[in-house]
Amino acid sequence: MRSSDVTAIVVTFDSAHALPECLGALAADGVPALVVDNASTDDTVAVAEGQGARVIRNARNEGYGRANNIGARAAESEFILIVNPDCIVDKGAVAALVDAARRYPDAAFFAPRIVEPSGRVFYQPRSLLATSLTNPGGKLVVPEGEACAPFFSGACFLMRRDVFLKLGGFDENIFLFYEDDDLCRRVADSGSALIYVPQAVVRHGRGQSSGEKPGRIFASRWHQAWSRAYVSRKYGLPNPAPGMFAINGLKAAGASLAFRRKLVERYGGSAAGAWAAMRGRKAF
Question: Cα dist. 247→132, 137, 229, 265 in Å?
Answer without folding.
Answer: 28, 23, 15, 14
